[in-house]
Design a protein that fits this description.
- The complex is a heterodimer of chains A (61) and B (453).
- Chain A is mainly α.
- Chain A has one helix and no strands.
- The mean pLDDT of chain B is 96.
- Classes of the chains: A mainly alpha (61), B alpha/beta (453).
- Chains A and B meet through helix 1 of A and helix 9, helix 10 and helix 11 of B.
């Protein structure tokens, strides 16, 4: 599978038509969002460590 | 009033004064399942024996003076994509037909610690995403069997309204608690993002998934929410008199809003205003950019969650429409996905601005009454159906649907209230106050079940 992109089976015309129609909506919405020029705006918080990871920044002076 | 349509507080009080027992009430709920579920298809698995065992345990504990609180001995149901150890959990799909989780989702562990009695696992659209799988069928609406109960937590909504349980857990990624609540005349809370632990809930979209309570009243929903989160059962003291409520102008109108939905919303606003609430019209800047955005985030996240099955023999277990929706997710570009994620924070800030000086925002939950079939979330009708619910999944703010006046044909509508992060219990308190003031109708046998009996 190396180098082969995941995606819908090309031999199913109904799936291809559905994907094409839905992607046209995605592209329309993305074009609209680009007008906000969000640029370097941060993503929602998604820290990659577990939420219950203890902090180790307590005052140890 | 039918025993199974009473409130949780009434049943809990009668357990304590000895006039009713958990075994009697659980048996009554299971009898309602036997009577009506052939027509409704609210359940995928009914846990009769386990429910009666749990009810007998609750009865014994209460007799021995071990009181776990309001939910102790109360029959509930859980959507069938939430892990329940030893109990088949299908996700509404043949892909998971024989899946029996080894462990419990933390929300179910919390409910067991609170003494709740599980009567079964409720029907849903396939993995909360696609269409109802033909093997399980579509849950029908308790007010009109020719219509859908809504999706994707339609089984939970129908089970609650049919008196098969007192409350049920649903999940909501774009409206899947609030839409069926609106269609069935139930109360449904999409809590603040993260307020309910979604570990053990099969993901549709990590960014947007929420689990929350559904019930016949806001107070019953509050009881289940407290049980799911391990919080207290009390609600903040809220009076409608003096509340400041913002009607989202663009959501109070729209070409898709039917005259009956509009009239129901107007009547709800009048009731709140007559009770002393101050209603003002507000707008949320850039809100229109949320319309149609859901697939850009749900698509790729669901594709990743399902990829191993899609690319194996397991793919035959999906219904064709669900499989198509999942394949679509691979086509969204990383840039499109990241920009949509950036927009979530941008929009959340706009909602917080709009809430300045207000206690909650108001809108109709859905623009119409329950249709015959659920629209796909990736269709134009699906976009319109979720126009007023999806924004709160994007921004993570709590949103509650409570029943407003029914239409002339008796079909329910929902009023949506939304608040600031962690305003969940406050919203439930406002909902309870509105129901006390006469909003909607509670404790009534749904019409389709009367003719079905």
């Amino acid at each position: 599978m190396t180098g082969q992109p995941s995606g819908p089976p090309s031999d199913d015309p109904t799936t291809r038509a559905f994907v094409a129609a839905t992607m046209s909506t995605v592209e329309r919405i993305d074009d609209a969002l680009r007008t906000l020029h969000l640029g370097t705006a941060p993503l929602p918080d998604s820290r990659p460590w577990p939420a219950d990871t203890p902090r180790d920044d307590a005052d140890d002076s | 009033m039918t025993l199974a349509l009473a409130s949780i507080a009434d049943i809990a009080m009668r357990y304590r004064d000895g006039s009713l027992s958990p075994v009697e009430v659980t048996a009554a709920c299971l009898e309602r399942v036997r009577l009506h579920d052939g027509a409704l298809k609210a359940f995928i698995t009914v846990t009769d024996d386990l429910a009666m065992t749990a009810a007998r345990r609750a009865e014994r504990e209460l007799a021995d003076g071990l009181d776990r609180g309001l939910l102790h001995g109360i029959p509930i149901a859980i959507k069938d994509l939430i892990d329940t150890a030893g109990i088949r959990t299908t996700g509404g799909s043949e892909v998971w037909l024989d899946n029996v989780p080894a462990g419990d989702a933390p929300l179910w562990s919390a409910l067991q610690a609170a003494g709740a009695v599980l009567v079964g696992k409720t029907n849903l659209q396939e993995f909360a995403h696609g269409v109802p799988h033909p093997r399980f069928g579509q849950t029908r609406n308790p007010w009109d069997l020719a219509r859908t109960a809504g999706g994707s937590s339609g089984g939970s909504a129908a089970a609650v309204m049919a008196g098969m349980c007192f409350a049920a857990v649903g999940t909501d990624t774009g409206g899947s608690i609030r839409v069926p609540a609106s269609y069935c005349g139930a109360v449904g809370l999409k809590p603040t993002y993260g307020a309910v632990n979604t570990d053990g809930v099969f993901p549709l979209s990590w960014s947007l998934d929420h689990a929350g309570p559904m019930a016949r009243t806001a107070r019953d929903a509050a009881a289940l929410f407290a049980g799911m989160t391990g919080g207290g059962y009390g609600l903040p003291d809220v009076r409608l008199d003096g509340l400041r409520l913002g009607v989202i102008g663009s959501h109070a109108e729209g070409p898709e809003l039917t005259p009956e939905a509009s009239a129901s919303f107007a009547a709800a606003c009048s009731l709140l205003s007559d009770a002393g609430a101050d209603l003002v019209t507000v707008e949320v800047r850039d809100l229109e950019l949320s319309e149609g955005l859901l697939p850009t985030i749900v698509g790729p996240e669901a594709a990743v969650a399902h990829q191993d099955w899609l690319e194996s023999d397991a793919t035959a277990g999906y219904s064709d429409d669900t499989r198509r929706q999942l394949w679509f997710g691979f086509e969204v570009s990383g840039v499109q996905y990241v920009r949509a994620q950036q927009f979530r924070r941008h929009l959340a800030a706009r909602f917080i601005e709009a809430l300045d000086g207000l206690d909650a925002l108001l809108s109709p939950t859905v623009a119409w009454a329950a249709p015959a079939e659920d629209p796909s979330i990736m269709s134009d009708d699906g976009e319109s159906e979720g126009r007023r619910t999806v924004p709160y999944n994007l921004v993570g703010l709590p949103a509650l649907s409570i029943p407003s006046a029914a239409g002339g044909d008796g079909m329910p509508f929902g009023l949506q209230l939304a608040g600031r992060p962690h305003d969940d219990r406050r919203l439930l308190a406002i909902g309870a106050a509105a129901q006390d003031a006469g909003l909607g109708v509670t404790g009534v046998e749904p019409t389709a079940l009367i003719s079905d009996s």
